[in-house]
Amino acid sequence: MKFGKHVRSIGQSKGFTQAELAKRMSVSVSYISKVENERLHFGDYPSEKFLHKLAVELEADEDQLLLLTDRVPASIRMRIRQRPDAFRAFAAMDDKTIDKVLRSAKRR
What we know:
The protein has two domains: 3-68, 434 Repressor (Amino-terminal Domain), CATH 1.10.260.40; 74-107, no CATH class. The protein is 70% helix and 0% strand. The protein contains eight helices and no strands. The radius of gyration is 17 Å and the shape is elongated.
């Protein structure tokens, strides 16, 4: 799912109108509309600070919002720096192998 659609979906599921979300976020309704429609002039996505606040207001997963904006959450970025070899190996796996690894990790 695209970032803007995801934000819209969460907001609607919480019963927020664009106006209510804008008020909670201290931004204009047009800004929320631009976020939801991915039509920001100064970049593809809002700032990380805005995403954090958005996650709090929508009670959404901040890491998921970051990933949808092609950003790597700080906790994952830290682990990548600590174990780049592991992430390279994981990235090279096909889906079937990744599923096996995940099932194995869940059993532990």
